Amino acid sequence: MIICANKMEYPLRSQGQRVQKQVMVNTEKERASLLFMQALISRGSVDAVSHHMASHPQYLESFLRSQHYILHMDGPLPLPCRHYIAIMAAARHHCSYLVSLHSAHFLRVGGDPVWLQGLEAAPPKLRLLDHINKVLAHQPWLVACSHIQTLLKTGEQCWSLAELVQAVVLLAHCHSLCSFVFGSAADGGGVCDLSPLPKSPNGTPPPPAASCPCDVANGNANVPDAAQRRALDSSCEMVFLKERIQKSQEEREKREERLLHAHTIQQTELEEDEEAAVYLAEPSRFISDPDFCYQEFTRRHEDHFQVFRVQDYSWEDHGFSLVNRLYSDIGHLLDDRFRSVAALPSSHSPDLKRAIWNHIHCVLGIRYDDYDYGEVNQLLESDMQLYIKAVACFPDDTKDPVCPLPWAPLKPSERIHVNLLIMEARLQAELLYALRAITQYMIA
């Protein structure tokens, strides 16, 4: 009897575990679906980035919360300036997708269309950010106290400390997001966008672009509907999500019909002008010194550029408290992102995730004295190291087919997980350099 009882115990326990796992899977799908519904209601579309992050809804929630706070909630910078700074950041990596996205938002919140003619058309105060923008994007170890001093002491065009901190967070956020956009496209899945295609000045869609995934990531989202549906299925892994999105779109169309009489011809013409302006917003217009790019941070530089040691200045002990004090609550939101990406369920071991994170910091000049960097070579193959470095340091070059994602056997969600690690590690690295320079300015 005892033997029989024991024999029955294991299948029952296994069945219970399967049921519990299924409940967790359903909960995650519902959570991702809810996030998409909220995006549809607030923006009228689900952007490409959210599509790819949807396989990790627990992270997506923290990402959307922080991004919404940075771009839309209380802060020292006016809304148009925030989106223009995002345009400047995305342009450093020639990310047409993000440049177009923020150009549209820039106009919708009342931004001056003239600014979209190029960096020279922007106010002098915003142009002053150009230097720290390019340095943070390509060689963050060059950020120095003198750069902060220049921005904070420039007469009528000077930045306040609170404004500068928000601007730095925006720059780092968008730089790292470029890595995710290009990295996700380089894995063969391609980043697609369900938002309406931009129109040319005569009101017709622009001519079809090359249909490779990298062109889609660059904002040329002229992809057949069937391809969009396949991308949604693979990234979300939820069959029922399309039905909910369709239902939400139908409800939105009904609301728009009821509000149709409230729109004037002038508003319609304004929207058409906005779409034309966005279509003409080329990344190269917002870049100065295009030859400035990533360079190796190697031991031969140590005499001039000291290695950034986390033991001397870390996010947990220094960066978090400073940014949270100068830009209320953003420290908590960013910290939640770092914790969320580290806690994501994955087939990767904690050692492998730590190796990816520390490898990215290492190529950006940041080192941990208590970490054995021999683990990087043990856990990451050379092709993987090259891919991670490319996505983290010069993501716009990953559109070149010579830099494919080297782990085809992994599930799409696992590939996205690694790209999320790359994005968040890069974000934290840029913040550490910028916040350390601000700290040095404050105590000088």
Characteristics:
about 450 residues; mainly alpha; globular; two-stranded parallel ribbon; disordered N terminus; single chain; 2 strands
Summarize the structure.
With 444 residues, the protein is an all-alpha fold.
Describe the model.
- With 444 residues, the protein is an all-alpha fold.
- The protein has helices at residues 2-43, 48-53, 57-72, 79-91, 96-108, 124-127, 130-138, 145-152, 161-186, 213-217, 225-236, 240-258, 265-279, 315-326, 330-343, 350-363, 374-379, 382-393, 412-443; strands spanning 308-309, 366-367.
- A two-stranded parallel sheet has the order 1-2.
- Helix 4 packs antiparallel against helix 5 (96-108) and helix 16 packs across helix 18 (382-393).
- The longest helix is centred in the N-terminal third of the chain and has 42 residues, at 2-43.
- The radius of gyration is 23 Å and the shape is globular.
- Mean pLDDT is 75; it is low at 1-25, 39-45, 186-242 and 261-270.
- Describe the strand arrangement of the main beta sheet, using strand numbers: 1-2
Distance between the termini: 79 Å
How would you sum up the global shape?
globular
Secondary-structure element sequence? Answer: HHHHHHHHHHHHHEHHHEHHH
What is the radius of gyration computed over CA atoms, rounded to a whole number of angstroms? 23 Å
Major β-sheet, in short? 2 strands, parallel
Mean pLDDT: 75
Unreliable spans are 1-25, 39-45, 186-242, 261-270
Strand percentage lies at under 5%
- Separate helix tally: 19
Q: Quick one: how many beta strands?
A: 2
